[in-house]
Amino acid sequence: MPKTFTKRKQKLPPLKQITFVKRYAMITLGIFLMTFGFYFFLVPVNLVVGGVSGLGLIIQVLFVDIPIAFVIYILNGFMLLLAFLFLGRKVFIRSIYGSLVFPSFIFFYELFLSPFAIEDFFLAAVFGGLILGVGFGYVIKYGGTSGGTDIPIKILNRLFKVKLSHAIYLIDGAIILFGFIAFMQTEGIEYGLYALIGVYLSGKGADVVVVGSNTLKAVHIITNEPDTIKTRIFAAIDRGVSLVPIEGGYSKQNKIMLLTVITRNEYYRVREIVAECDPSAFVFASPATEIHGDFVLQTEED
C-alpha cells in the first residue's frame, strides 16, 4: 500500500526582543568562554593571540611576579580611564561590566583551579583560539563588550580616523608581535606561527557565532512596518536600506522587503530594531561577498 503524505504548515516563532537578563546572561557566558580558552589553553604555553589578556600574560611572565588577574585588572582600569577621557560617558559605562567580569573569572581560576598541563602549541592554539573566539562571538552578538583593547581601537578609529580594521591590526598586531619577541628565544620561531593560527581560529569562531562565517551579511527583512524599521536602522547604524516590492507566492499579498548590508558588530542592533517594531517580521541573513561601492566599515555608535 503506497504511503500518503500530508502537508503541514509550520509557523515559525516570532522574532522576540532579547530581554535584559538574557542579554547579560549570554554576555557573561561569552566572557566565561573567553577566559576559559585563555587561562586553560593559552596560559600554559604562554601563547599570545592579542587583547589585554595577551598583554597581561606578557607583563606577568616577564616583569611582575603577581597573579595575572591583577595585571588584567590594572590594564583594564587604565583602559576604562582612556574610555572616559576620550570616548565619553556612554562608552565608559558600557565597558565597565566586561572589564571587571573578565579578570574576575581569571581570579577565580587562579584561586581554585590550575591550567591544563598542555605542552603542545598546536593543541593550545586550536582549542584556545576557538573557545576564546566563540566566547567573543557571544559577547558581540548580544551587544556587549569585553573592554580591554576595544577601547584603544575605538580611540584610533574615532579621534585619529584610522579605519576600524586597520586599528584592530595595529593594536592586536602590536601585542602579538610583542609576545613573539618576548618568547622567541625560549620557544623558537614556531611560536609566532602558532600564534597566527590561534588568532585566525579565534576570528573564525567569533564570525560563526554571530551571523555565520562571513564578516559582512546581507540582511533581508519582510515586514509590515518597512518605514519604521528603515528609519530606525538609519538612526542606529547609519546604513543604507533598499526597499524591494514583493508579492507573497502563497498569500498573493503585496509587501515590502528591506535589504541592507551590515557588519557582524551591527547585527545585534538590527535584530533588536526589527523585534521592537515588528515581531512577526520574516528575517534572514546571508553571506555578502564581493562588496563594492558605498559601504564603510565603521565602529558602532553609542
What features would you describe in this structure?
It is built from ten helices and four strands; from the N terminus they run H-H-H-H-H-H-H-H-E-H-E-E-H-E. With 302 residues, it is an alpha+beta fold. The protein has two domains: 20-210, no CATH class; 216-287, Alpha-Beta Plaits, CATH 3.30.70.120. Strands 2-3-1-4 form a four-stranded antiparallel sheet. A hairpin with a 6-residue loop joins strand 2 and strand 3. Helix 1 (20-42) crosses helix 4, helix 3 (68-87) runs antiparallel to helix 4 and helix 9 (226-237) packs antiparallel against helix 10 (264-277).
So what's the overall shape? Answer: elongated
CA radius of gyration is: 22 Å
Flag low-confidence runs: 3-10
Q: How does the major sheet shape up?
A: 4 strands, antiparallel
First-last Cα distance? 65 Å
Structural class: alpha+beta
- Which range best describes the helical content: under 10%, 10-25%, 25-40%, 40-55%, 55-70% or over 70%? 55-70%
Strand content: 5-15%
What is the subunit arrangement here?
A: single chain
Secondary structure tally: strands = 4
Order of helices and strands: HHHHHHHHEHEEHE
- Helix run count: 10
Mean pLDDT: 83
Strand order of the largest sheet: 2-3-1-4
- The count of domains is 2
